[in-house]
Write a structure and sequence with these properties.
The two termini are 23 Å apart. The protein contains 14 helices and 21 strands. The longest helix has 16 residues. It folds into 3 domains: 147 residues, D-Maltodextrin-Binding Protein, domain 2 (3-Layer(aba) Sandwich), CATH 3.40.190.10; 115 residues, Dipeptide-binding Protein, domain 1 (Alpha-Beta Complex); 199 residues, Dipeptide-binding Protein, Domain 3 (Dipeptide-binding Protein, domain 3, Roll). The relative contact order is 0.16. β6 and β7 form a beta hairpin. The strands form 6 sheets. A 6-stranded mixed sheet has the order 14-18-13-17-15-16. The chain is α+β, with helices and mostly antiparallel strands.
Length: 498
């Protein structure tokens, strides 16, 4: 018996029938898995498209990089079995793993690494890490098929970590051009099918270098952005788990249900009300500061996230080395917000659009933010958009306000890119970023990271609201899903049924 697309009420009623739930939950083969995801990506190539949802499917599963970031945030060897750096921090030597092949049969070697990184730093590259990582690589040498030397313009102590992100996966030169729809990597799984609007299906690749250690033969990622549908799918057994569960108001229900495991962990996410700095009157810092003063962060976290998050005051999280708490710079103060708008010469009401992608933190959070803004004379007209529409609209700079969770760690360098969607262009920030890049490792870099956070906050580039907690729900017996997400990934190589 297979259950599909039931409503929450139908699923709950069905599973209340004596003896049915145990049989239903025992059906799926122990070598297969169905995971729920909130968003469907528009591409499966993380090196050329920005959505974190891409990495949640292919990273570490189909596509691999030189290094690997585990659930604790530690950097481990992957396609590079070892690496070293020069004392000045401007040169890294990577020794590559021997005998690795791509799923198209071609050899993984230094030439493939050189190809992938040069592609990432090419003038026409759309790689999200181009400016922050790859433009800092001045040369790539390959003295041996298993050795790659990266010479940097500026020292970067975080490079091994950055090369473990999905933007740095190594593609086969033979198939890179079609990676958006047919990714070919060195990982333990290969793409079986992509059913647009429904699911991405992966199958175990028997040619993987350590195939015997991979326990799951088939994995499906099913796209469910509606909270009630997420709950229904779990209760009905349609999915086995949801690593980033959106219906946080239902956590207690699952904690009380012995068929499920609920884990609560940390993320690198920065939940923000992004502001278009190029649009009038949002180009006036006083207006942006007014918006920040109009938002009660803790009320947002309590009302939208069920308290599962921490307030933030800049584009950094409490887990970051060098994080400083700047939530006190713009405390919730509607009177101050109204005064700043008046000082900026903004007549009331100020009408703005508020674009909201599908996740509940945005859709539900948008209603909360709009109500807060209305109290200071800002009328935010809500525009609900699908994920592909968000990427084609707000992410291209066509918006006034939008709510989004930036899940990439150490992504402060996006503020040095005036073409990035919020349109911030600051000489002061760029100078600080340059100083940090050139600084030696240690205290100087940490101190400059604090200065960068202060500059972003001073300029009120965006309204910084929350660092979300991760909620993962899965069927009892499923082991290895990440409870915390230092990066957006689902490492299936560690997942199995007990």
């Amino acid at each position: 018996m297979t259950i599909r697309r039931r409503t929450l009420a139908q699923a709950a009623a069905l599973l209340s029938l004596p003896g049915l739930s145990a049989d239903l939950f025992a059906q799926r083969a122990k070598d297969s898995l169905v995971l729920g995801m909130v968003l469907e990506p528009t591409s499966l190539d993380p090196t050329s498209a920005p959505a974190a949802a891409i990495g949640e499917i292919v990273h570490y599963n189909v596509l691999e990089g030189l290094t690997k970031i585990n659930a604790a945030g530690a950097v481990l060897p992957l396609l590079a079995e070892d690496w070293s750096s020069e004392p000045d921090g401007k040169s890294y030597t990577f020794k590559l793993r021997k005998g690795v092949k791509f799923q198209d049969g071609s050899a993984f070697d230094a030439a493939a690494v050189k190809f992938s990184f040069e592609r990432a730093k090419a003038p026409d590259s759309t790689n999200k890490a181009k400016k922050g990582v790859f433009d800092n690589i001045s040369s790539i040498s390959t003295p041996d098929p298993l050795v790659v030397i990266l010479t940097l313009n500026n020292p970067d102590a975080t490079l091994p970590f950055r090369l473990g992100e999905n933007t740095a996966v190594i593609l086969s030169p033979k198939s890179a051009a079609t990676a958006a729809t047919q990714p070919v990597g060195t990982g333990p799984y290969r793409l079986d099918s992509w059913q647009k609007g429904s699911a991405v299906n992966l199958v175990k690749w028997d040619g993987y270098r350590d195939a015997a250690a991979i326990k799951l033969r088939r994995v499906s990622f099913r796209f469910i952005n509606d909270n009630a549908a997420q709950v229904a799918a779990l209760l009905a057994g349609d999915i086995d788990g949801m690593p980033r569960f959106g219906a946080v108001q239902n956590i207690k229900q699952f904690q009380a249900d012995k068929r499920f495991t609920v884990e609560i962990g940390s993320t690198a996410g920065k939940g923000i009300l992004a502001i278009n700095n190029k649009k009038k009157p949002l180009d006036d810092v006083r207006v942006r500061r007014a918006i920040m003063h109009a938002i009660d962060r803790q009320a947002f976290i309590d009302g939208v996230l069920e308290g599962l998050g921490k307030p933030i005051g800049s584009h950094a999280t409490p887990a970051d080395v060098g994080y400083i708490d700047l939530t006190g710079v713009y405390p919730f103060n509607p009177d101050k917000a109204r005064a700043l708008l008046k000082e900026a010469g903004v007549s009331s009401p100020l009408n703005l659009s508020l674009s909201l992608p599908p996740p509940s933190y945005a859709r539900k959070g948008g209603e909360v933010v709009a109500a807060m803004l209305a109290k200071v004379g800002i009328i935010a007209k809500i525009e609900n958009v699908e994920w592909a529409q968000w990427l084609a609209g707000p992410f291209k700079g066509n918006f006034d306000l939008t709510i989004i969770n930036h899940v990439e760690p150490l992504d402060y360098m996006q503020y040095a890119n005036p073409q990035y969607y919020w349109g911030y262009d600051s000489k002061a920030f760029n100078e600080l970023a340059k100083k940090r890049a050139e600084a030696g490792r240690g205290k100087a870099q940490v101190a400059l990271y604090g200065d960068l956070q202060r500059q972003i906050t001073t300029d009120a580039v965006n309204a910084f609201i929350f660092n979300p907690t991760q909620v993962s729900i899965s069927r009892k017996g499923l082991k290895g899903l990440w409870a915390s997400s230092p990066i957006a990934a689902n490492d299936l190589s560690q997942v199995s049924w007990s």
